[in-house]
Please model this.
Amino acid sequence: MTYHKILYSLDGGVAQISLNDPATRNAVSQEMAEELIEALHRAGTEARAVLLTGEGKGFSSGANLTDAKRLLDDPMRDAGLSLEKYLHPMITAVRSLEQPVVTAVHGAAAGVGCSLALAGDLIVCAQSSYFLQAFRHVGLVSDGGSSWLLTKAVGRVRAMEMMLLGERLPAQRALEWGLVNSVVPDEALRSSALELAGDLAAGPRSLGMIKEIAWAAPDISLESAMAMERNRQRAASRSEDFVEGVKAFEEKRVPDFKGR
Model:
């Protein structure tokens, strides 16, 4: 696929994917969503970690409302169709990718852009960045899985505050709430996120399994979580990386994992 709304590169096992529509502050259109889904599938075949960010002045301003304007004259309009067709599949593609995903957030992460940022496994923010549940300002409800992502991360009370009030949540407060992993100076965002993604790309095959069990844990019982751990541990112990890890431990050296 030729990309028009994203940038894609692969270096050192890290697939770098950037939303690339600076004129709209990376508002997510159907074209961008479909390109991102394809790029994530591609990364799943050739990368060991993914760095997802945005070009220009912000991570993403949310869904592209140009598409929504076409609905206004139809009394039977359904703004949920875009969710079903491409926005929710986009979030699912990030969330379900086997490889760890680092999201690097600068400027606004608003609307579905907020969801896209929070779907990452590790979230690095620039000091000037902020999260915004903008839906109430246009008479819509939170979407992109944000009701689930926010509630699981910060609890119902704070999630409700973000969704009902529609106020900006600055990066530092997001860190205090436990919504993100780290906040760095604006000029260090890309390098910090890339370093983190590089560390993940150099990790063992089991990182994908750790990601899987961590995302599943909040919605299953302790017994189910332990059963899942048991099954994934069997798979991890049969990997080449497990053999390398044990040998490296015995030989008192740094392991050289291959992701296999």
Observations:
- Residues 206-250 form one domain.
- The chain has eleven helices and nine strands.
- The chain has two domains: 6-201, 206-250.
